[in-house]
């Protein structure tokens, strides 16, 4: 996946380098980051200078989710511990943490990390073992922010499947969420009752 200055997101192939496999008009300004979900490799997030973070599924021309953060978004990353958590950092010095399983419309945490007058946040990443997020700014400084316990809650297995591992539970959680926002598949020969001829 490649994001471009004009907002296009191109899917490229290492075997066929002359043409793009697929192209989507993802944003209206430069795309700064594309990051795949750790639990489902067909789901990815993109961010841009147009103030937006979009969640995509491979093969779809429209995003599944779109969030406007009020400032150019320098980076977006999925959490390695949860299939529905991602974080983004903006040019006004804020970090936004979303959990789509908790709220599909609003962040569950917004934290000002640097002064927007002197610095801009450009990079963000989760630590794979410790409950921290590291942010980088335009002055070359790294800022470490600890996640609160409610931002890193693990899935509880259902009563019928107590021995299911955490990875499988995370995949199931994401699949359930995606089933709510995906369009139903088109079936040929099926006619809606209200449009049937009398």
Automatic annotation (TrEMBL):
InterPro entries: Dynein_IC, WD40/YVTN_repeat-like_dom_sf, WD40_repeat_dom_sf, WD40_rpt. GO terms for molecular function: dynein heavy chain binding; dynein light chain binding. One of its GO terms (cellular component) is microtubule. It is found in: Cytoplasm, Cytoskeleton, Cilium axoneme. Keywords: Cell projection, Cytoplasm, Cytoskeleton, Dynein, Microtubule, Motor protein, Repeat, WD repeat. It holds the Pfam family WD40. GO terms for biological process: cilium movement; outer dynein arm assembly. Belongs to the dynein intermediate chain family. This is Dynein intermediate chain 2, ciliary. It comes from Pieris macdunnoughi. The lineage of its organism: Eukaryota, Metazoa, Ecdysozoa, Arthropoda, Hexapoda.
């Amino acid at each position: 996946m490649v994001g471009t200055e004009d907002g296009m997101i191109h899917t490229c192939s290492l075997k066929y380098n002359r043409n793009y496999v697929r192209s989507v008009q993802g944003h209206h300004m430069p795309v700064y980051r594309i990051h795949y979900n750790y639990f489902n490799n067909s789901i990815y997030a993109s961010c841009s200078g147009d103030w937006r973070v979009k969640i995509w599924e491979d093969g779809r021309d429209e995003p599944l989710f779109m969030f406007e953060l009020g400032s150019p978004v320098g980076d977006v990353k999925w959490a390695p511990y949860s299939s529905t958590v991602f974080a983004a950092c903006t040019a006004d010095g804020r970090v936004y943490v979303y959990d789509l399983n908790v709220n599909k419309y609003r962040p569950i945490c917004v934290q000002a990390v640097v002064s927007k007058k002197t610095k801009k946040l450009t990079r963000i990443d989760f630590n794979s073992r410790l409950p921290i997020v590291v942010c980088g700014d335009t002055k070359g400084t790294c800022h470490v922010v600890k996640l609160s316990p409610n931002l890193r809650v693990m899935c509880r297995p259902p009563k019928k499947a107590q021995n299911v591992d955490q990875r499988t539970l995370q995949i199931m959680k994401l699949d359930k969420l995606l089933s709510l926002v995906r369009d139903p598949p088109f079936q040929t020969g099926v006619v809606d009752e209200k449009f049937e001829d009398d």
